[in-house]
Amino acid sequence: MGKSKFINVVFYTLKPLIPRGVQLWLRRKLIYRKLSKYADVWPILEKAGARPEGFSGWPDGKKFAVVLTHDVELQRGHDRCKSLMALEQKHGFVSSFNFVPERYKVSPALRNHLQANGFEVGVHGLNHDGKLFQSRKTFLERAKKINAYIKEWQVVGFRAPAMHHNLDWIHDLDIAYDLSTFDTDPFEPQSDGVATIYPFWVAKNGSGYVELPYTIAQDFTPYVLMREKTIDIWKKKVDWIVSKGGMVLVNVHPDYMAFDDKKPGLEEFPSAMYEELLMYLNSRYSGQFWNALPKTLSRFWKEQVLSV
C-alpha cells in the first residue's frame, strides 16, 4: 500500500471519532504550513497551460470554456440545490449536480426538476466513505451498483468522492466523462494533479472516456479552511486560464454555501461569493466564453478534437 493510500485509510478510519471542529482546525493548520512550499504550483501551475495537440479552439470562436459543477455531499446540500440552480439561472449559467446515491435520499423529483431546466445530473461515488478505491475487489463490487444508478438516472458522468481516482479502474463505469481529477491541488488527499487545464481522453482497449479536471480551487479550501474573504484566488486563476484559452472548470458545493444572507456556519461561506464569480465572468468576459454542461463539452472534445 502506497503512503498516500495508507494515510487515506487511517484518516477515514479515525474521522468519525474526531469532532468536526477539530478536523477543520487540523486541516487549516496543515494548509497554512504548506502554502509557501507550494506557491510555485498552486493555484497556478504554468505547465498546465500547454495547448493540447489537435485542439483548434472552442465552438463559435469562444476564447475559453466555463463548466460549472457541484458535488452534493449531504442532505443539507441536496436541500439547497434549487437555491443554487436559481442563483445560476439569474446570471444565465447552467451547471451539473453530482449526487451520492446511498448516503442520503436523492429525490427523483429534484433530479427531474434540474434536468427539465437544462441542468445536468451525475453520480458522485456511492456512499462517500473513502473506500471506493481501497481495493480492486471493492471497486468492482461498487462499480456494479454505481452503473445501476447511472442507468436508472440516465446520466453519463461521474466524480469520485474526495477526488480519489484511479483512471484505469474508472473504465469499468458506464460513463462518457469523469470529473475526479484536477490540474493542480497539493491540498487534496490524493494530490497527484494531471497538469492540464484542458480535457483529455483516457483510452483503453479501443474505448475510453473524457477526463475533465477541475481547474480553479474548490470552494472548501480557500473559503472554509483558509477563510478567505475575497474571491481573488478564483479571479487570479480565471484570468490565467483565459490567457491560455483553457477550461475554467468549477466545483462548488451547496453544502458549504449559506444562502439568503444567512450567517455562515462552521463550514460555510456566503453564496454571494460564488455569485460574485459568476458576475465577474459575465462582466469582464462577456461574450468570450462557452458555458457548457460537462456532457456537452465531453462530446465536443471526443467528436471535434480527438477525431482530428
At the fourth level of CATH, the homologous superfamily is Glycoside hydrolase/deacetylase
CATH class: Alpha Beta
CATH topology, anyone? TIM Barrel
Please tally the helical runs, counting DSSP H or I stretches of 4 or more residues: 10
Total strand count, please? 11
Helix content: 25-40%
What proportion strand?
Answer: 5-15%
In the CATH hierarchy, the architecture is Alpha-Beta Barrel
Order of SSEs? HHEHHEHEHEEEEHHEEEHEH
Would you summarize the structure shown here?
37% of the residues lie in helices and 14% in strands. It is an alpha/beta fold and 308 residues long.
Summary tags:
308 residues; TIM Barrel; 5-stranded parallel sheet; 10 helices; 11 strands; 14% strand
Description of the structure:
The chain has 308 residues and is α/β, with parallel strands linked by helices. The protein has a single domain (3-47, 62-305), classed as TIM Barrel, CATH 3.20.20.370. It is 37% helix and 14% strand. It is built from ten helices and eleven strands. The chain has helices spanning 3-14, 20-34, 75-78, 81-90, 108-116, 136-153, 220-225, 232-244, 271-284, 294-305, and strands at residues 64-72, 96-99, 120-123, 157-158, 177-178, 200-204, 207-211, 247-251, 257-258, 269-270, 289-291. Strands 1, 2, 3, 8 and 11 form a five-stranded parallel beta sheet that branches.
